[in-house]
Amino acid sequence: MTDTVAALTAAVAGHVRALRTARGWSLDELAGRSGVSKGMVVQIEAARTNPSVGTLVRIADAFGVTIARLLEPAEERTVRISDATAAPQLWRGGEGGFGRLLRGMNDPSFVELWEWRFTPGERHTSENHMPGTREVLHVLEGTLTLTVDGVDHEVAAGQTIDFLADRAHTYRNDGPSDARLVMVVIVPNTEWDRRNP
């Protein structure tokens, strides 16, 4: 597990540094565009921190790439088979829930495939994503309550919901058993400067 975290931290550091320098951005410019502090950007590029999923989203949005792009190994293959147990868990709930990025693609479109599990009472609040971002969730087990624009939507096992994720939203499990779901995130192919909403 420690080796996996170190490898992911190193991958994120290398990709963030390479994407920033390729655009000719200073550390201050990336910090401003992403809304992530300059100190945190320095820590990320030096591979001295394991950033949260929220921080990764902000940085990926600033560059106009998916989180998966920041985590991917340097080599790109024509065909890739990956084991779910090797996928990075980017969110961990206090009671054993998790959010795991199964796979993401940046070409020709930006798409991410996630697996989530929420134990009873767990919740995850997500900031707004890049304008135009959509999420599609399919509940495999249990019931998930999704709050978008202050409105609760209960999604039971076997049901699918899609919504605009460019606004704050919360996933939670109010039920007595685990809620398991898969999620696809579709991100517009453009950079986003959070200083200019």
TrEMBL record:
Single GO molecular function: DNA-binding transcription factor activity
SUPFAM superfamilies named among the record's database cross-references: RmlC-like cupins
Protein name: Transcriptional regulator
Organism the protein comes from: Phytohabitans suffuscus
Key words, A-Z: DNA-binding
Family annotation (CDD domains): cupin_XRE_C, HTH_XRE
Source organism, top-level taxon: Bacteria
Coiled-coil annotated residue ranges, if any: none
One GO cellular component term: cytosol
Domain HTH cro/C1-type: 16-70
